[in-house]
Each structure stands twice: as structure tokens, then as C-alpha cells.
Design brief:
Number of domains: 1
Radius of gyration: 12 Å
Mean pLDDT: 95
Oligomer: single chain
Order of helices and strands: HHEEEEE
Shape: globular
Strand content: 25-35%
Length: 88
Amino acid sequence: MISTEQVNAIVSKIEALGVDETTVSALRQEYQPIHFTYCMDDDLPNNTPVIEQKDFNIYLIDGREHCLCLTNDYDVATGIVIAEIIAD
């Protein structure tokens, strides 16, 4: 389970530090045992983020089964995808 408060704090940190591998690495250290994935937002077509920002979107991962999948349910979320948006 990941709380909305945790996600909001993570969003604030990303806004302050920027979207890059260094930030994701820092988040991995601070928010263990949450699993973090970093990718480009266009790698996740046809999915709805739980939080949309100008430079990035946040998606939740459900890792309860053998295969990971995206979810909008904070109660079953085990990880977070930080998806960077690159302007065209």
C-alpha cells in the first residue's frame, strides 16, 4: 500500500529536484521498500496517470501477482512509475 500523502511528498521532491535518474535514486533510498521505475511517458500509451504534472506523470504499480501491472488503486500499489514528459 502506498498512501496519497507519500505520493504527494514524492511529487514535491521531484518538482524540487527535477526528473532524472539521480532524483529517482534518491527516492529509492528515502522511500524503501517502494519500488521506483523511471521511463518516458510515451512508453506508457493508453494509460491514465494518478498524478499529472507539466514535466512528468506518476503511475502506480500493482506487484502482488507474478506480473506487474499499472493500477489506480493506492491500497494495492507496491511501486511508482515516474514518467518524464518530453515536449515535442
